[in-house]
User: What shape does this take?
Amino acid sequence: MAEPSSQPIERFFCHNAACPDHGKRGHGNLYFRGWSGRDQKIRRVYCRTCKESHSERKGTALERSRLPPDKAVSILDHVREGVGVRATSRLTGVARDTVSRYIALAGDQAEGLHDELVAFPPSDP
Assistant: This one.
C-alpha cells in the first residue's frame, strides 16, 4: 500500500456531496494546497468548484489516524494475512482496540470502494 502523499492528484475526488464535481476523479477541479498533521506531512486537497478542502486521507482507513502510516499499514497487512486481533496487537505493539478500530475503518473503506466499482455493472452481451 503506497503512502498517501505519493498519490497523484488524479486519484482524488471532491468529498463534498453538494459539489457538482463530487466523486469525479481526474476532472481537473482539484489541486494540492497546503499541509496538515502534526509534522505537516499530510497534503490538503482543494476543490476549485466548491472552494472546500479536505485531507488527502479523507475517506481512507488512515483518516484521523494518529499512528505513523507505516504502523497503520502494518496492522492492516497483518489482518489481511489472516492474523488475529490479539496476535496483530502483540506483533505491532498497539492495543487490541486499536487493531479493531483499524479493521472497522478498513472495512468501511472497502465497502465504499466496492459500491463505487460495481455501480456500473458490465452490460450483458
Q: What stands out?
A: The longest strand covers residues 30-36.
